[in-house]
Amino acid sequence: MDSKKESEESQDATSAGADGATTAVPMEDTNPSSSAESIQTSSTEPGLLPGETVVREGKAAILFPSANEVFYNPVQECAVITEFAREQLAQRGIRILVPGEKDRVVVQLSEEKNGTEGQEASEQPENEQQKEEEGDEKEYITASAGERCEQGLRVLEGLAASGLRSVRFALEVPGLKSITANDYSAKAAALIARSAQHNNVSHILQASQRDASMVMYEARGRKERYDVIDLDPYGSPSPFLDAAVQAVSEGGLLCITCTDMAVMAGNSGETCYSKYGSVSIKSKYCHEMALRIILHSLDQRAAVYQRYIEPLLSVSVDFYIRVFVRVKTGQAVVKNSASKQALLYNCVGCGAFHLQRMGKKMSQGKHMKYSAATGPPVGPNCEHCGQRHQLGGPIWAEPIHDNAFVQKVLGAVSGNPTRFRTSKRIEGVLSMVTEELQDVPLYYVLDHLSSTVHCNTPPMLQFRSALLHAGHRVSLSHACKNAVKTDAPAGVLWDIIRCWEKSNPVKRERLSETSPAHRILSTEPTLQACFEIREDANPQSRKRHLTRFQENPQANWGPKARAKAGGGISSELEDKRKQFQGKRKKQITDSSQLKSFPCKKFRKGTCTHGDKCCYSHELEQETEEKMD
Asked: Where is this region: Disordered (predicted)?
């Protein structure tokens, strides 16, 4: 059934607001025990049917059956930020009222003197105050959470399952005209309708029991389109993407969640191609590549209808990825689509990678000239270690975040920290997002670089300082703790590793002559690395000790089991583990035990060992006698 995986709070935290829909940046609370506190059950409240409980999150109270008839993942917190809604509704003359935002403060993330970025960050609050003062002179329609706004945003949650997210939207996001919570399951739709009445949001929230694709296909007309479409399916969203890019309004928001990370992270490249039109590669940068694969798929499907995407926020957290993209229409811009995609060449030995754009564009006065790209950028073997290259992609090669939008989201979270239980983690992840090099796709992993040559891993600050001393830019990545995102070519990275190895020598005699380590270290570095720590090598998010990477908040953390179509009680994960414990029998180490098994070659008449055979011939003879 269409039942969707209610994303963990981490997912929603990333939901960077939409056409009135929320922007959430999902993250679990830093206190593992608090996840249990956010979900309270009660069977004594009036109006409950036998076997029902009440699941509470935020302001929402969802009626939920004890049986696993409707999918629900506990610990989902909607860290909703309404920046996208604020932008869209301001154009319609509507001002949203968010509790706690009277003394809103925009936090300056970076104190580094890198061009004009710091100046823009410091000037932003003044500009916003000027706009607010000018707006005070105008007449605005105010919209509050829980109230229906006739000129507000229309939201569709295509695979709503328990409807928890939709109910929270209705209770906590101001400026909404309507919310359609759809699920293919009749039981789920009935529970959504009852939950809407239970929370007194039936005037905003309507339950729907239909196929999600058909709901969106029927909304392709300009007047019927939704301002925000949220798709959070169980597994891959690929069956719904074609309908989604057509059903979202001009400039509207698509919120897409993918939990099929095994496919997108390289375990099944052929399956990834069948779903997303891109071959995934098993690599250290697989999580960012997964983000770029789904963005490529969205842009490719939108281009069919002369539409294109603008990524606002793309995050990889926990066990899923979530992207927030704005969809617009424009035939001229769609022509740039080929130049935004790239094939990926990945070395299987040392992990060096190269991108090959699918198309090329050149400016000729007021016009753009488009042509086929030239390549490949590398030979069949890696120039550093001599190993072969893998070909992956195509992937989205443009920025995956809108830095200005993320700054607004971050300012709203940091300026109103008591609104969300997970505000600390949201602030940490968004801070890392703003620090990433937006024009540098993918990243290297420091401990993988050192393990390739079997040397000690250099401290991150020293390695980053060496890159900065060499005249290159470097940043971390929110997708990996030890990531090195840099515009330096792979040769510079290996030169720095070679210089580090000279002071931390490796026993060369133990290295095979054909190994990547031997071939890399046998080349003398052309760059003399300087490992003196620089002040700007330490990012602001690290200096401020923000919550950037968090351990799992509870045991068995991950996507929950799919809801059963016929209802019934589903087994707990611990019970399943006990049930299947020892299913894969241990291999027999004592050869005498093999006599309890019949000899297959004796059955075929090809066994030449006779009485010395370690398997039993008598069992075969007894079986034949019984058959006779």
From this structure: 1-51, 111-140, 555-590
Question: What is the C-alpha separation between 594 and 49, in angstroms, rounded?
Answer: 58
Q: What is the 3-state secondary structure (H, E, C) of 436-463?
A: CCCCCCCCEEHHHHHHHCCCCCCCHHHH
List, in sequence order, the alpha helices (H) in 436-545: 446-452, 460-469, 490-503, 516-521, 540-543
Separation CA 417–CA 109 (nearest Å): 16
Query: Count of residues for the chain?
Result: 628
Query: What are the Cα distances from residue 2, in Å, to 15, 169, 176, 239, 240?
Result: 21, 20, 25, 11, 11
**Structural domains of the chain, count:** 2
User: Residue 622: inside a domain, yes or no?
Assistant: yes
The predicted-structure confidence for 44-79, as pLDDT tens digits, reads as follows 566 666 666 777 766 777 676 654 445 444 433 444
3-state DSSP helix/strand/coil % of the chain, to nearest 5? 35, 20, 45
154 belongs to a structural domain: no
Q: Is residue 623 part of a domain?
A: yes
Per-residue pLDDT of 206-226, as tens digits, reads 999 999 999 999 999 988 999
Give me the residue label for tokens 């000790």.
Answer: 545
pLDDT of 264-298, one tens digit each? 999 999 999 999 999 999 999 999 999 999 999 99
Pairing mode of beta strands 367-372, 359-364: antiparallel
What are 5's strand-pairing partners?
none
Residue 225 corresponds to which tokens in the numbers above? 């389109």
Domain carrying residue 608 = 596-627
How many C-beta atoms surround the C-beta of residue 449 within 10 A? 26
Residue 152 burial by Cβ neighbours in a 10 Å radius (0-12, 13-18, 19+): buried
589 or 129: whose pLDDT is higher? 589
C-alpha span between 322 and 305 (Å, rounded): 23
CB 236, CB 263: distance < 8 Å: yes
The 10s digit of each residue's pLDDT in 20-46 is: 333 334 433 333 333 333 444 444 566
Global pTM reads 0.79
Of 81, 16, 110, the C-alpha closest to 435 is: 110
Is 486 inside any structural domain? Answer: yes
- Give phi and psi for 615, each to the nearest 5: -100, 165
